[in-house]
Amino acid sequence: MRKHSTKLTESKPNEDDLTEAIVEIFHINRKVYGTRKIKAKLQERGLIASRRRIGRIMKEQSLVSTYTVTQFKPHKTACNEEKTANKLEREFDQAEAKRFVVSDLTYVKVGHRWHYICVLIDLFDREIIGHSVGPHKDTALVSRAFATVEGDLSQIQWFHTERESEFKNHTMDQLLGTFGIGRSISKKGCPYDNAVAEATYKVMKTEFIYQMEFRNLRHLELELYDYVNWFNRYRVHGSLGYLTPVQYRQEALKKLSDLMLTIQTHNKKSRIVWESLLVLKTLYVLFLSYSLPILVKNNGDAGFPTLDSVAIIYSLPLLLFHFVVGEPS
């Protein structure tokens, strides 16, 4: 579980101000938020309220989350017998962007006909990075979703799906091979191997598909684009510490930037120390070049050490410099 802490200047609001804020948050977020997410959004505004108090106000204002709607689960198509391994192995919390992208298909009624939606989800921040709609459940639908991904497709390391034939065929193999994207497929009869994609579609059905009637394909395309934008930029996710996918990615980039700055600062300090030691080593060698001839000339005289003791005493600092003064990291 990813943990995030945010320091806020919070206050206990009066009933009218709190009610107004709750109603506003509920409606601008597509009527999908319950008490947990509304509480998180209130905290962003610096307002403190318990979930019990929020629930009471929601009940008084007749604010009912769309998650009370009964879910319909469509029948899954038969899976193929492809032997490709499951590289994901249910490691759904990824520390690197686009290391694993998962996908699935779902049904949606447009007019009096069934159409289909395909989304591509980055496990790093749960962002929907690609999406498409169409009247046919085929490879072209998946390919169009890849075409909407911003940036270089070769940044995607692995593409994980279930075993539907739309995801594993010659055309898909060519597309993935062109960009060097590895393949991962759920084990036969194991929907939990693709749990994030399944959960995302469950959310989409509750918050989007079941809430609208789509007149035609163009209407569905426009509404899906709007929903994906909201999903990525404004919808907070419990698995991300109640941040949006975009916020989570930005925070991760900031942490990486801070880490790189720390490393650069450390390297700069190490360089200064190394150069200082190198100067000392040079001065010591100059000292030896001046003093050793005098000691050799007066070897054995009263008041001068023998050459054996000089060799031991003078060699110790050189050995120390040899081990300490190397190339800076």
Offer a quick outline of the entry.
Helix content is 47%, strand content 11%. The protein has helices at residues 15-28, 35-44, 51-60, 139-147, 170-178, 195-207, 217-233, 245-297, 307-324; strands at 100-110, 113-122, 127-134, 158-161, 182-185.
Overview of the structural elements:
The chain is an alpha/beta fold. It has helices at 15-28, 35-44, 51-60, 139-147, 170-178, 195-207, 217-233, 245-297, 307-324; strands spanning 100-110, 113-122, 127-134, 158-161, 182-185. α2 crosses α3 (51-60) and α8 packs antiparallel against α9.
Entry keywords:
5 strands, 11% strand, single chain, 9 helices, alpha/beta, disordered N terminus
Q: C-alpha Rg, in Å?
A: 32 Å
Helix content: 40-55%
Beta-strand portion reads 5-15%
The residue ranges in which pLDDT falls below 50 over 5 or more consecutive positions are 3-9, 70-75
What gap, in angstroms, lies between the N and C termini?
35 Å
Q: How would you classify the quaternary structure?
A: single chain
* Number of strand segments: 5
User: Which structural class do you get from the secondary structure elements?
Assistant: alpha/beta
Q: If strands are numbered along the chain, what order do they take across the biggest sheet?
A: 3-2-1-4-5
Average pLDDT score: 81
**Run of helices and strands:** HHHEEEHEHEHHHH
Largest sheet: 5 strands, mixed
Shape verdict? flat
Question: What is the count of helical runs?
Answer: 9
Task: Furnish the topology, listing elements before pairings.
Layout: H1 15-28, H2 35-44, H3 51-60, E1 100-110, E2 113-122, E3 127-134, H4 139-147, E4 158-161, H5 170-178, E5 182-185, H6 195-207, H7 217-233, H8 245-297, H9 307-324
Parallel strand pairs: 1-4, 4-5
Antiparallel strand pairs: 1-2, 2-3
